[in-house]
Design brief:
The chain is mostly helical. Helices cover 69% and strands 9% of the residues. The chain has seven helices and two strands, in the order H-H-H-H-H-E-E-H-H. The chain has helices spanning 7-19, 22-29, 36-45, 47-64, 68-79, 104-116, 123-168, and strands at 84-91, 94-101. Strands 1-2 form a two-stranded antiparallel ribbon. Helix 1 (7-19) runs antiparallel to helix 2 and helix 1 (7-19) packs across helix 4.
């Protein structure tokens, strides 16, 4: 069963939500300034006050923060030219207000932002992935060639040393 907050606790919580400053919130809520810090710390640890603050913050967040669907809808309306922006034009006769759709650059930018959210349908991402795979294949091939070159170089050096040893009339053991 949720315990109801006193009016002073509720004022404290509301002030704290607004400012984020615990001592200042306690003073504004009516607590004495010399005990404001300890009372504020104590209030923030009380489950009823904590849950009240959490609930209020969730309400505020849900009302003020754009969710993903709303963001994509806004970008879509910009990309389609449905969203108008207000432009103020100053002339010798005064200031005029004009509503116009987004310019081409802004619409393209909005379209790119939408496509970022749908990577399966983005041809640019597909091309980038293909290029990365090709780069990886090239690097792997170069590594194989380098390893093969090292092995064949060692074999050639060994072969030359054997031939040199034969020409000099001895073997490499000192015989």
């Amino acid at each position: 069963m949720a315990r109801k907050l006193t009016p002073k606790q509720q004022r404290f919580a509301d002030e704290y939500i607004e400012s984020g400053k615990k001592e200042e919130s306690a003073i504004k809520a009516g607590y004495k300034s010399r005990s404001a810090h300890s009372i504020a710390t104590e209030n923030l640890q009380k489950p009823a006050i904590k849950s009240y603050i959490d609930e209020r913050m969730a309400e505020i967040a849900s009302k003020r923060i754009m969710d993903a669907t709303e963001a994509v809808e806004l970008l879509t309306s910009i990309a389609r030219g449905e969203t108008k922006e207000t432009v103020y034009i100053g002339t010798a006769d005064g200031v005029y207000e004009k509503h116009k759709e987004a310019d081409l650059k802004t619409r393209i930018s909005a379209t790119k932002e939408i496509l970022k959210r749908y990577p399966d349908n983005n041809k640019l991402v597909e091309q980038q992935i293909r290029k990365l795979k090709a780069d990886a294949d090239i690097a792997e091939s170069k590594a194989r060639i380098m390893n093969a070159s090292t092995d064949s170089t060692e074999a050639k050096v060994s072969e030359y040393l054997d031939k040199l040893d034969d020409v000099l009339g001895g073997d490499s053991d000192g015989n």
